[in-house]
Design brief:
33% strand; six-stranded antiparallel beta sheet; 12 strands; alpha+beta; 20% helix
Length: 230
């Protein structure tokens, strides 16, 4: 009688699922922390700044672009990128740069993301410029999910402090979906700040992993029996 390693099959199934989820999480949103500009270092629209110089102390600490790596302007005057030396009240949540979508006017930005079937969580960090209704940000992933945040909705966000916003959603049809952020409120150059945007798959619960491993083992058994009776 020959034996084969069911434990190894189960482990392989679990590791395979975990590996797929980890790879998806790492690549779904491009440039979610706004640390890279646009190929060719295109100068900014307001001051002609080079993206790489925003945090260097040479020239303006912020500028506006029609698009940066991963993101494209959808409405308004453009995507304003600020650096750690722009505001005395706050630095980027991660790295040196973050976005404000009310520069010369309220603006929007988007990128297309590829999602498989499953449950996901959209998350980003938000801070209002001040305690007023001018700091609103609307966000959406296609028609799958969306919401709105300002200095008091859905929680009391504090100017100068980053607050994490999360929204879970389910994808029933795999495909490409538009991840969008749009400023709301007055066109007064005081908008909401955004950093560290991510979309990540929700890991399967242990029961789900066990079921997938069991199905993998059952398939292996069936294939072996088929070979033995052939």
């Amino acid at each position: 009688m020959k034996f084969f390693n069911l434990t190894g099959l189960a482990l392989a199934a679990v590791l395979g699922v975990a590996g797929v989820q980890s790879a998806q999480a790492a690549t779904i949103v491009q440039n979610g922390s706004f640390e890279t500009g646009i190929p060719g270092n295109t100068p900014g629209l307001n001051f002609g700044s080079q993206f790489s110089d925003l945090n260097s102390g040479s020239g303006s600490s912020w500028d506006v672009w029609n698009g940066i790596n991963g993101w494209t302007k959808t409405t308004g005057s453009g995507i304003e990128i600020q650096s750690n030396r722009t505001l005395s009240t706050i630095d980027a949540h991660s790295g040196q740069h973050y976005v404000e979508l009310d520069s010369n006017s309220n603006s929007g930005m988007a990128q297309n993301i590829i999602l498989g079937v499953g449950r996901y969580v959209l998350s980003f960090w938000y801070s209002p410029r001040d305690a007023s209704a001018t700091n609103g940000i609307e966000y959406a992933v296609g028609s799958l999910t969306g919401g709105y945040v300002n200095y008091h909705t859905p929680l009391a966000a504090v100017p100068g402090t980053w607050t994490k916003i999360t929204q879970s959603f389910i994808v029933k049809t795999a495909g490409s979906y538009a991840l969008k952020f749009t400023a709301t409120g007055r066109n007064d150059s005081y908008g909401g700040l955004i950093d560290d945007v991510s979309v990540a798959p929700v890991p399967l619960p242990a029961a789900g992993l066990g079921l997938m491993a069991g199905l993998g083992m059952l398939g292996a058994l069936r294939r072996r029996r088929a070979r033995q009776t052939a």
